[in-house]
Design goal:
This protein has 285 residues and is of the alpha/beta class. Helices cover 31% and strands 31% of the residues. It has helices spanning 55-62, 85-89, 106-116, 121-134, 150-162, 180-197, 208-214, 262-267, 270-276; strands spanning 15-26, 29-40, 44-48, 70-75, 78-79, 92-95, 168-172, 201-205, 217-222, 225-231, 234-241, 244-251, 254-261. It is globular, with a radius of gyration of 20 Å.
Amino acid sequence: MTGDPAARGLGPTTAVVALAGVRVAYGGRTAVDIERLEVRAGELLAVIGPNGAGKSTLLRVLGLLERPAAGSIAFRGRTVAPGERLDARRQMASVFQDPLLVDATVFDNVALGLRFRGLSRGEIAPRVRNWMRRFGIEHLATRRSRTLSGGEAQRTALARALVLQPALLLLDEPFSALDQPTREALIADLGSILRHDRITTVLVTHDRGEALTLGDRVATMMDGRIVQVDAASRRILLRTESGTVRIECTIDGKDRTIDALEEQIRRAQLTDVLALSGLPSDPCP
């Protein structure tokens, strides 16, 4: 079974997870304030923004690891009640910047979640071998995790997540600790797998290239708010410098830049900011 939404009874435009009126605050400071966000079945939504924008907090909310102070979360078409959070989390998988492997072989690391779920050895072995093969680590099956390179460890972590056949995959800066050649190879391999299997995925990254390469859509966050969601081929990136937000728009590989005041971005949606600044409401015609 793959991440194909049709195989899971979901239509191609169905939201696997949806947030409505979600707010998270720490010590009186708003970390996340999302009026509406949907992650569609089979898509990869890349979330990008500066440090402190709330990206990782948003990912924890989507993964039901953090309870918002307000708002609702729907998973696979149903609002998640407090008593249903654990069951929903078991249908998700996460991969972080740190692979978080146990001191065991690659095979045992990839098999870990399946063993926790009580599958038999006969069920576990072929699934583990399949995902080791797909990530190019089958030859490392008997290697201890502490002997792996950074790229090998992250491939092991991804295989461990995907062997669970999750309805939702959550990726929190999974490539940021890798050197460039290793990173590029893993992005290519992971992108091929996610597109082929249509695994619903949310990727949090600060890297524009990762977002554009992997994302079907890209959401831009600033100060806890989603200020823009657009197709990856036609998107806006915000960079803050000395109170001014530089809006970098990429369309078909060509860049355009315009500037707006940071305070305006905080008060309004991006289209309103552009209008207030006397700029076209769509900077990427």
